[in-house]
């Protein structure tokens, strides 16, 4: 699938960069995940190591202070661990199975980094302990708008996982428009953007009144998620003949194939075309926005641009998509 993505996806026209402390951060984040129990088995440890969260974060945030790069890396590791529990370990097979976990994690988010009752963290397990640690560290930066945005975005992420679980239980493939809206949430992109803004001292969420910023962020989120979908498609789906495949229904290629009644190759090309057109729209909107932008807006744009390029480069080598 990497060969198809290289052929079909337009390479983002932004510089490829990487933070020089990537190896240090990878080691420290792996120790964090191990210490808090996110890697409770050899298989989970292998999966998380193969995801290369530090490499993705270091490409997206190449000039961040090391402690803030660590925070972003730990968030990405947590997101990967939750996704793997849902997708690989069966936690997300049905809403009734996933709901108790989501309820506990929502309680953790409601604390917004305040000290947690031991019973709550005991009930939520390693995922809750790690999530509380992330919120506590964001809170320590004393930027209330960032903390509120971060916890709100993670709340949307968790609720979107229930949407995925309901679809799996009923064998339902969402339509393209619905999928695109929800993919922005299931991808965990927005909390990752928020921590990147925190790393770069970008404008806080409560100061982004310009609709052009909102539109640009939505396009950037789509590009990150659709790039993931094209690169990961082959790993998550297998051919069953006659141009059809079997696998999870939460992929842009699958949504297009079902809605348009297209075979696999045509749907792959259509997904790549959506990515390429969105990338062209993004670069056009970014250019227009930067003509009159202040320094804070330049940092905001650099963060989104960095994520688009980072996702493309990381997807070329990450064992997660091999």
TrEMBL record:
Superkingdom: Bacteria
InterPro entries: Isoprenoid_synthase_dom_sf, Terpene_cyclase-like_2
Coiled coil: none
Keywords: Lyase, Magnesium, Metal-binding
The protein's required cofactors: Mg(2+)
Molecular function per GO: metal ion binding; terpene synthase activity
EC code(s) of this entry: 4.2.3.-
Annotated family: Belongs to the terpene synthase family.
PANTHER family listed in its UniProt record: BETA-PINACENE SYNTHASE-RELATED, TERPENE SYNTHASE
Name the record gives this protein: Terpene synthase
């Amino acid at each position: 699938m990497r060969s198809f993505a290289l052929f079909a996806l337009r390479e983002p026209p932004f510089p490829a960069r990487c933070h020089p402390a990537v190896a240090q951060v990878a080691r420290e984040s792996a120790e964090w995940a191990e210490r808090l129990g996110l890697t409770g088995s050899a298989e989970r440890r292998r999966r998380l190591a193969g995801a290369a969260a530090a490499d993705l974060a270091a490409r997206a945030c190449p000039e961040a202070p090391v402690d803030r790069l660590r925070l972003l890396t730990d968030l990405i590791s947590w997101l990967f661990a939750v996704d793997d529990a849902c997708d690989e370990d069966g936690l997300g097979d049905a809403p009734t199975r996933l709901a108790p976990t989501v309820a506990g994690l929502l309680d953790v988010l409601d604390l917004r980094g305040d000290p947690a009752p031991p019973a709550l963290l005991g009930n939520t397990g390693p995922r809750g302990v790690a999530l509380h640690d992330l919120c506590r560290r964001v809170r320590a930066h004393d930027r209330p708008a960032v903390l509120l945005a971060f916890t709100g975005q993670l709340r949307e992420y968790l609720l979107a996982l229930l949407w995925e679980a309901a679809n799996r239980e009923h064998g339902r493939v969402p339509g393209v428009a619905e999928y695109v809206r929800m993919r922005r949430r299931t991808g965990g992109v927005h909390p990752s953007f928020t921590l990147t803004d925190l790393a770069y001292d970008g404008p806080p969420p409560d100061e982004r009144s310009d609709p052009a910023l909102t539109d640009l962020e939505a396009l950037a989120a789509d590009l990150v998620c659709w790039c993931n979908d094209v690169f990961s498609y082959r790993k998550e789906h297998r051919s069953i003949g006659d141009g059809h495949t079997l696998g999870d229904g939460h992929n842009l290629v699958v949504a297009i194939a079902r809605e348009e009644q297209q075979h696999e190759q045509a749907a792959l090309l259509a997904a790549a075309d959506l990515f390429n057109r969105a990338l062209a729209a993004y670069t056009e909107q970014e250019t227009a926005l930067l003509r009159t932008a202040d320094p804070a807006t330049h940092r905001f744009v650099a963060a989104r641009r960095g994520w688009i390029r980072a996702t493309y480069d990381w997807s070329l080598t990450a064992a997660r998509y091999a």
